[in-house]
Amino acid sequence: MMDKKMKDELEKLLKGTHMGIFTFDDLLEKADCKELRDLLREAIALFHRHEEHLICYLHDLGEETPNEKGMDERFADLMTMVKHLVVNNDREIADEALKAINMGKKALRDFKERYQVPMALQKLLQVMGDDYETIYHRLHRIVLINE
C-alpha cells in the first residue's frame, strides 16, 4: 500500500485530469479554427489516456478510485462552464486552454517535488509532463499565428 498522503495527492492529479478533460471538451464546443479544434480533440484523447493510466496505477496498488464525480468536482465543472460563457473567440479559447495546461504542469511539478515515487509512476508522470509540454507549445503556436 502507498502512503495515505501520496495516495490522496495522486487522486488529486486524477481529479485534475478529469477537470482537464471537462475544460477542453467545453472549449472544443466553442472553437472555430480547425487546427485548434483538432488540437483540443487530441489533448482530450491524451487526458483520457492519462486518466486510464492513473486509475490502473492506483488499482494495481489495491486502491479504489471513485466511479463518479463528487459534489466538489461537479461544482468545479459548473464554475468552468460559467467562466467559459465569456470566451468568444479562438484566441480566448487558446488562452483558457493554456491556463489549464499550466495548472496541470504545476500540479505535476508539485507532486514530483513532494514525493519520492517508484519508477513506474515516475515514467507515467514524465509522459504526462511531456504531453502537457507538447500541447502547451502547439497552443502557443496557434496563439502566435492568430495574433
Mean pLDDT: 85
Helix content: over 70%
Biggest sheet statistics: none
Count all strands and give the number.
0
Basic shape: elongated
Describe this structure in words.
This protein is mainly alpha-helical and 147 residues long. It is 80% helix and 0% strand. It has five helices and no strands.
Task: Give keywords.
5 helices; elongated; mainly alpha; about 150 residues
Annotate the secondary structure layout.
Elements: H1 4-28, H2 34-60, H3 71-84, H4 90-114, H5 119-145
Helix pairs in contact: 1-2, 1-3, 1-4, 2-5, 4-5
Short description:
This protein has helices spanning 4-28, 34-60, 71-84, 90-114, 119-145. By secondary structure, the chain is mainly α. It is elongated and about 45 Å long.
